[in-house]
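Entry 14. Two folds queued back to back today. First construct below, sequence then structure tokens.
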Amino acid sequence: MPHMWWVVAASVVVGLIAAYLIWTAGRVDRLQGRAELAARALDAHLLRRAAAAAVLAERRFGVELYAAARIALDAGPDEREAAENDLTRQLRAVQLDPDDPDCAAVIAASRRLALSRQVHTDLVRDARSARSRPLVRLLRMGRGREWPRYFDIDDPTLTVPADVPAT
């Protein structure tokens, strides 16, 4: 009986280690899930901006902007970053009037896209950081999911010319 405190102490230590490992695995899983949801939200914002740019190109601007918007809408996962960068370059090349509803829709979609991209980048960074810790790698806590990937595009925020008042 006098040596029973070793058993109690060992049980407490094992319990604390198990609680920490469960908490860490849950955190890694939550960060992975949030990064995947942010990727889906980013994809939705990319599609909205490309659709708004296609409508704008049909009504006001030429074939180049429309082609870039259609390519961005139809691009596969491997071609997506290049197509979105091309669409951003095409949108920056045209004069956007914030008083025109079609231009305003593209400007608003670009702003929401920039925010979504920043959120996605932050969550991917956090998930990759959590998964790269030695204990997580050793115990393969994130093995059920792919490594989160950054979506590397130019800043999609469109600026309004100084002589045109912003609404």
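Second construct, same run, same settings:
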Amino acid sequence: MVTTDKKIVSAKSAKTAAPAVVRAKVTPAPVAPATMAKVALKRSAKPIAKPIAMPKTEKPSKVKKPKLVRDSFTIPKAEYTVLDDLKQRAGKLAHAVKKSELLRAGIKALAAMPDGAFLAALKAVPAIKTGRPNKD
């Protein structure tokens, strides 16, 4: 065996190409007894508590958005201007609204009508030719 000043190194490791690493013993610095008492007090002051397992809450299921349908239709100019008038009327009531919202509100109003009033509303609307209008 080969000896070094701090550590005994075996003959087997001494034969290797790399030199042996010498590790010195590290002794802790002297600590005052008052400091040791404070450290012990801090360590013992903390109560050892087991972590509380929180009950698992189920994630709320995601509400699927309704699928939107894009459509085009032909409407007489007089009725189209009524949509603009209704938009302005809603704006004066501090509720900005889009044309599509107005149409959807109208559909809901028709759906809520009793059969007699619904039929009267349908008869009040004249039928128009379907398709794109001619350019005038």
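Quick look at the second one. The radius of gyration is 44 Å. The helical segments are 11-14, 33-45, 77-92, 99-112, 115-123.
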